[in-house]
Amino acid sequence: MTEIPLVNFTSARLAYGPLSNGHQTLSLKWANDFSVSGPRAMVLRPYAPETIAAWGERTRTGPDRTVFALYERATNRLIGETGFTSVDFFHRTAEFGILIGETDCWGQGYGGEATRRMLAYGFTQLRLHTIWLQVSSANERAIRAYERAGFQHAGRRREAQWINDTLCDIVYMECLASEFHGQGG
Asked: Is 48 a member of any domain?
């Protein structure tokens, strides 16, 4: 077991806490693992530590962002990150994002569990009304997990991404507080 992380809340098998110094090292690993970065529509190229540090500072901090490190509770291992960006407290909307970076954790249901828990957090603690996301049409596993968690299709931009030599759509999905009946993981 690794060191016990600082935790804000939990779900059945996951813990959610602030990003830590160790997170930067794993972000670099995940960005440079094309099996992880490819489905996220990242440019498949080597990423330097400075690039990831600057990207992390720009995208994970600020008053319109709430981003958590995602830990496997049984091992306290950092396996990903999840959170909200573009949070608009006046209109009560936010964009959802999640990354399970540790590939041995794929297919375990962690993504769906974290998505449901974050929807519950967003609707109850942040008092959001609409949570939306965008995902590549090539990432069918993620789309199914989002649908099971309560997201509905809201639209798409056709052939808007080039992933693995294929033009893919960007799929937009949303979940409304009035339609969410999840247990939060």
From this structure: yes
Q: How many domains does the chain have?
A: 1
Round to whole Å and give the CA distance between 67 and 117.
13
How would DSSP label each residue in 38-97? Answer: TTTT---S---HHHHHHHHHHHH-STT-EEEEEEETTTTEEEEEEEEEEEETTTTEEEEE
Between CA 11 and CA 72 the distance in angstroms is 10
In angstroms, the CA 39 to CA 136 distance is 7
Tens of pLDDT, residue by residue over 49-106, are: 787 777 767 666 778 999 999 999 999 999 999 999 999 999 999 999 999 999 999 9
Q: How many CB atoms lie within 10 A of CB 169?
A: 16
Are 65 and 89 a contacting pair, CB within 8 Å? no
Q: Is residue 1 part of a domain?
A: no
